[in-house]
Amino acid sequence: MSGRRVDINTARVEELATLLGVGKARAEAIVERRQNINGFNSILDLTTVPGIGNGVVDQNSNALTCGAYISHSPPSSSLHPHRHAPASSASPPAGTRAGPSGHRASTSGLKQGTGNSRPSSSGLKLGRLRPSTAAFGAGVRRSAGKAAASKGRTSTLRSILSTSKTGTSRTQNRHAKLGRRASATLQRFSTSPSTCRATRRNKSLPDVQEDSDLRSRVSLRDLSCRASTSSASSAASPEPNQGPKSCIKRKSSSAADEKSPKGNASPTKKLCRTHDALSHRHLPTTTSILPGSSSPHKFNSSRVAQYQQDNLEAPRRRLSSRLQLPSNLNEWLKTFQNWNVPEQRLALDELINHCEPTLVRHVMSIIEPQFQRDFISLLPRELALYVLSFLEPRDLLRAAQTCHYWRILCEDNLLWKEKCREAGIDEVNGKQTRRRSNSGVPRSPWKSMYLRQHQIEYNWRFADIKQPKVLKGHDDHVITCLQFNGQRIVSGSDDNTLKVWSATTGKCLRTLVGHTGGVWSSQMSNNIIISGSTDRTLKVWNADTGQCIHTLYGHTSTVRCMHLHGSKVVSGSRDATLRVWDIETGQCLHVLMGHVAAVRCVQYDGRRVVSGAYDYTVKVWNPDNEECLHTLQGHTNRVYSLQFDGVHIVSGSLDTSIRVWDAETGECKHTLMGHQSLTSGMELKDNILVSGNADSTVKIWDITSGQCLQTLQGPNKHQSAVTCLQFSKKFVITSSDDGTVKLWDLHTGEFIRNLVTLESGGSGGVVWRVRANQTKLVCAVGSRNGTEDTKLLVLDFDVDTQKL
Fold first, then answer.
1. What is the DSSP string of 324-352?
2. Which residue ranges have biased composition labelled Polar residues (predicted)?
């Protein structure tokens, strides 16, 4: 640039394009902006041009000047209908800029009677400068005008800050009170939600400034919404000795008032509504604190516009009405309004710097709510529900307490159906109905089911255990087998009988008499019960009537195990054979021979039979042609337990190992080592295996990788052999010879608590069998030395659905 300065009000596109970071496109935008606003007031006004930020202005600050703007278009008074120059205006003194007819008065103009303050709105007569005169005196105006303006602004700012520090009593207490009143007044001026939209001047800084000071961006940008300088009535009848304020341009509010007599915002702009507007609560009307103002003003006028569209008054935060406003407050506010945007920002910045921290927090508490948006209520219902679907159920319950509309969204049935699916809740109880909650919003059946499941889980973990139902009926005999389907409990004993109990009332419904030996195995499906006995027979019973439907003869020794699938049952006996029976006809369909020792365990999936025996082997059978498909060899002792899911076979043996086999190929995929004794019981679900052992430990395995995930032990472990176990998606329930039933966390392996503790535990009391469903636990207890009565204990962890 070779030391030459560029006047932003007279430079051509070619000259402006030579500036750093400008270029031709931005230079054309500067010229267009200059023509639209009839010239720039200062270099800072360049930031109103799209693409020109503070960084560009700072880089070229030494090469830029702001002289008088020369309009090449005929003057038009319609641009500013609320300001009219007098018919005979004198020529302005040096240092002023053209007035409202196309030329502006410079901000460095002089007030009457002083030489160091900013131009006053009263007593300053503005006229029209000839182009030649304006160009000739540009250098003088730039130097003298800027110095005078700087002095004037500094003097006025100091006087305002001085006013906020001193009062009539001129004491320190009065100083603090005036500070609070000034802050409160600024709040009313800047954030009053009950007033109409504040009009903006044609020249303003952009919404986003490249400013490193965060406080300036908040307090200076967001608080700088200003009131117009005059109403329609004051424009028609100006006060004496008061000329037109041509140094600050403002939009007229008269046109908007004529179109919208009630003060409503333009209906063409769709604005956000808060929950108060949704619920149609009418709020008290408030008025402006500025006397003589026909158009009240506020901060965040877009929100007020929406309230006005709904014929509602926006809520407004007010200080106590007992506080008295300072006498010079209105003059202070008018002076603030007459400044341009940079001056107002500087004033606010200085005012905040002079405030105590408590006042700054007060201002922050007023500003922050203005930027809060209830975006959920503003979204279409489908999008709102999509957003809410990412919340956890606990967060959904909290969100439902926010407001009525959020409550409606958070009760959406499909939303809670998805949450139930994620939690593994497959179906809603058929008795559930869509009843209304206390708030009048229909409650989702899926939500009720989820809450019920959550409460049930809480009851298992933490709630006080209710007094269990005690079912006595087998005298002092051992309960050898136990079945439970939610409504009925079937217990088999070595007293040759089976008993059918009501799980709800605890009453004995039926006693099934017919076997001539002890009952050692049983199965139940709906109202059909099958039992196997030491008398070498199986019997099929009707649980409703207690009638024996069929007696199945064929085995030549004790029927030690069986497995029911559909209408077929497979039984294993100490005679080393397996038999397949049709329980509807009572016929023996197939006999599977191949084992050379007693069959101890059997599994049947309707297609293949898997059996484990005392001959150390596991066999896979095709029952239709009575063919042995695979003989799985590897165990070095008796096989006592089996699990079969159609793909994997898991066998537990007295040799302390657990083996995982491929059912199709017969290959041993994993050998699970870790137990020290007989694996007495196992359960397999979704590739997770839980095994209980006579070494008093329980282990959780992943059969796909062969890894032991958890070992349930520690200071709260069982003190004797594990007799039975069962697990769900979250819990593991184990029983032992030590007379306890323990609850463990499946995923962490942590001990939760004891569910049953027999007084005779450790001295002969034993828990032989456990069966559980979602809400109930059935335990078969007794002793081998007479220290504990043989009985069934039924524990209930269900909840009252009416309380949900």
1. PPPTTHHHHHHHHHHS-HHHHHHHHHHHH
2. 104-123, 184-197, 284-303
AA letter at 195: T
Sign of CA dihedral 131, 134, 136, 139: negative
Q: What is the DSSP string of 434-453?
A: --B-TTSPBPPHHHHHHHHH
534 φ/ψ angles, rounded to the nearest 5 degrees: -70, -10
SS3 state of residue 232? helix
Q: What is the pLDDT of residues 300-342, one digit of tens each?
A: 444 444 444 444 444 555 555 567 788 888 888 999 999 999 9
Backbone angles phi, psi at 543, to 5 degrees: -70, -25
Give Cα separations from 698 to 218, 647, 682 (angstroms). Answer: 62, 24, 10
Q: What is the distance between the alpha carbons of residues 17 and 426, in angstroms, rounded to a whole number? A: 70
Burial 174-192 (b: 16+ CB within 10 A, else e): eeebbbbbbbbbbbbbbbb
**What does the alpha-carbon distance between residue 376 and residue 216 come to, in Å, rounded to a whole number?**
30
Q: How far apart are CA 182 and CA 188, in angstroms?
A: 10
Give the pair of three-digit tokens for residue 27: 């230079």
Neighbours of 566 (CB within 10 A): 11
> pLDDT tens for residues 256-284?
343 333 333 333 333 334 333 333 333 33
- Averaged pLDDT, 67-90: 47
Q: Are 743 and 759 a contacting pair, CB within 8 Å?
A: no
Distance of CA 776 to the CA centre of its chain: 33
Query: Which secondary-structure segment (H or E) carries 375?
Result: helix 375-378
How far is Cα 313 from Cα 306, in angstroms, rounded to an integer?
10
Q: Name residue 243's amino acid.
A: G
Cα–chain-centroid distance for residue 385?
12
The three-state (H, E, C) secondary structure of 180-205, written as one string = HHHHHHHHHHHHCCCCCCCCCCCCCC
pLDDT, tens only, 422-461? 988 876 654 455 556 666 788 889 998 999 999 999 999 9
Give pLDDT tens digits for 543-564: 999 999 999 999 999 999 999 9
Distance of CA 303 to the CA centre of its chain: 26
Whole-angstrom Cα distance, residue 510 to residue 545? 8
CB 804, CB 452: distance < 8 Å: yes
Query: What sign does the CA torsion over 299, 305, 307, 311 have?
Result: positive
Which residue is it, tokens 């940008």? 221
Q: How many CB atoms lie within 10 A of CB 259?
A: 9
The neighbouring-strand residues paired with 688 are 685, 702
Tokens read off for 561: 């195990």
How far apart CA 78 and CA 171 sit, in angstroms, is: 51
- Reported as a single tens digit per residue, the pLDDT across 464-499 is 999 999 999 898 899 999 999 989 999 999 999 999
Tokens standing for residue 366: 């007023």
Give the mean model confidence (pLDDT) for residues 395-407. Answer: 91
Query: How does the average pLDDT of the chain come out, rounded?
Result: 75
Token pair recorded at residue 748: 């962490």
Confidence check: pLDDT of 695 > 50? yes
Q: What is the distance between the alpha carbons of residues 175 and 356, in angstroms, rounded to a whole number?
A: 11
User: What residues contact 714, with CB distance under 8 A and at least 6 apart?
Assistant: 751
CA 410 – CA 447 distance, rounded (Å) = 9
Do 795 and 771 form a contact (C-beta atoms < 8 A)? no
pLDDT of residue 152: 52
- Element of type H or E holding 662: strand 658-662
Amino acid identity at 449 = M
Helix, strand, coil abundance in the chain, percent, nearest 5: 25, 25, 50
pLDDT, residue 433, reads: 52
Alpha-carbon gap, residue 222 to 318, rounded angstroms? 19
Per the document, the length of the chain is: 804
- Residues forming a β-bridge with 671: 659
Which is nearest to 179 in space by CA: 336, 332, 340, 335? 332
For the purposes of burial, counting CB atoms within 10 Å of the CB of 222, is it exposed (0-12), middle (13-18) or buried (19 or more)?
Answer: middle
